[in-house]
Write a structure and sequence with these properties.
Family: Belongs to the membrane fusion protein (MFP) (TC 8.A.1) family.
GO molecular function, one term: efflux transmembrane transporter activity
Shape: elongated
CATH topology of the largest domain: conserved putative lor/sdh protein from methanococcus maripaludis s2 fold
CATH architecture of the largest domain: Beta Barrel
Structural class: alpha+beta
Helix content: 10-25%
Largest sheet: 6 strands, antiparallel, barrel
Oligomer: single chain
Number of domains: 4
InterPro entries: Beta-barrel_RND_2, RND_pump_MFP, YknX-like_C
Number of helices: 3
Number of strands: 20
Strand order of the largest sheet: 2-9-12-11-10-13
Keywords: Coiled coil, Lipoprotein
Radius of gyration: 41 Å
Organism: Caulobacter vibrioides (strain NA1000 / CB15N) (Caulobacter crescentus)
Strand content: 35-45%
Order of helices and strands: HEEEEEHHEEEEEEEEEEEEEEE
Length: 371
């Protein structure tokens, strides 16, 4: 009996000791999190809020297309006898691309030439007789009409033969084709695409409130989605004569030199038009935290027992060159946590204070809306 009571007392004491240790650890951890500067300090890097120039831009999307683009087709149903190009080949204007079966056309030309030769002989004979007064002048005139008709028939036969030879309407580069000798094609069947990509055109629409900014010759930048980090410079080549009454936007066309062929027709392109440069309060991108639409930073301030980080909501503008524009919530000279925001919470004690983040005059990168 005494031994059983002894073991019960020992077990109860062990349970009480475990509960006490667990409660102490929980209380200590809570104090570290919400101690308002009295807990263990987290080492962070800091940056000083400064001003930097921001470039206001109009950004819209457009689709790239060649200076000239066409899909080569046939206007007749016929067998292909020869393909005179290879996929991706650069071709000149008038170069033969495809030849179609033309035996009937060749025979038609031969027959038309024979009839022309006979009509010419008849005309010369009747003309001579008419000049000598032997034959009526009307007969000579009828033979002349027959001769002219025969010449027209020859021209028509030659034109029919030309339909069997398909040529490049302009200089450019052909795409990928599936046609081959022996294939029967129908009118309108695509043979191959042909694009002149020496200059790439991008058509885009701009709200009419920016009409005063637009003008022919205005420099413009393009950033294709397919070529991240690359910027192409061109100019506005043309503005439409009308504003769309539904969208209240005007259509513009920009042209970009494309000597290296990097730009391809069909690419989705972000077009940027600079409106002007202004100065604003800026912080590094890594120093801004977003929760839904709300942006915030951690401002470094003095607490009861040292430096602490206070979460502060801010209103952001554009993001440019790795900096976020701060329109309200901060002022020049404020010190904020530069990075590692996931390691701290509002009111957490901090230490360190090493400068961090990109320099305010850093360059490079693309623009986007931060919020």
């Amino acid at each position: 009996m005494i031994r059983r009571h002894f073991f019960l007392v020992v077990a109860l004491a062990a349970v009480v000791l475990m509960l006490g240790v667990g409660g102490f650890k929980l209380a200590f951890a809570k104090k570290e999190i919400t101690g308002g500067g009295g807990g263990r300090a987290t080492s962070v890097t800091q940056t000083v809020v400064a001003e930097r120039p921001f470039t206001d831009r109009i950004e819209v999307l457009g689709a790239a297309k060649g200076l000239q683009s066409v899909t080569i087709t046939s206007n007749t149903a016929e067998l292909i006898t020869a393909v005179r190009f290879t996929d991706g080949q650069a071709v000149s204007r008038g170069q033969v691309l495809v030849e179609l079966k033309a035996e009937a056309e060749d025979a038609g030309i031969a027959e038309a030439r024979a009839r022309l030769a006979q009509a010419e002989r008849d005309y010369k004979r009747w003309k001579t007789l008419a000049d000598q007064g032997i034959a009526p002048r009307a007969t000579a005139e009828q033979s002349l009409a027959a001769y002219e008709t025969a010449k027209a028939v020859v021209d028509s036969a030659r034109a029919n033969k030309l339909d069997r030879v398909i040529r490049a309407p302009f200089a450019g580069r052909v795409g990928i084709s599936d046609v081959a000798p022996g294939m029967l094609i129908s009118p309108g069947t695509a043979i191959v695409t042909l694009d002149d990509t020496s200059v790439i055109r991008v058509d885009f629409s701009v709200p009419d409130r920016y009409l005063e900014t637009l003008r022919i010759g205005l420099p413009i930048n393009a950033q294709p989605d397919a070529l991240p980090g690359e910027t192409f410079r061109g100019r506005i080549a043309q503005l439409d004569t009308r504003i769309d009454t539904t969208t209240r936007a005007i259509k513009a066309r920009a042209e970009f030199p494309n000597a290296n062929g990097r730009l391809k027709p069909g690419m989705l392109v972000k077009v940027a038009i600079d409106k002007g440069v202004r100065t604003g309060v800026a912080v590094p991108e890594a120093a801004v935290q977003f929760e839904g639409e709300q942006a915030s930073v951690y401002v470094i301030t003095k607490g009861p027992k040292g430096m602490i980080a206070r979460r502060t909501d801010v209103t952001t503008g554009i993001t440019q060159d790795s900096f976020v524009e701060i329109r309200s919530g901060l002022k020049k000279g404020d010190k904020i946590v530069a990075d590692g925001l996931n390691r701290i919470q509002d009111g957490a004690a901090i230490s360190g204070g090493k400068p961090g983040g990109p320099k305010p005059d850093g360059k490079g990168g693309a623009d986007r809306k931060a919020g």
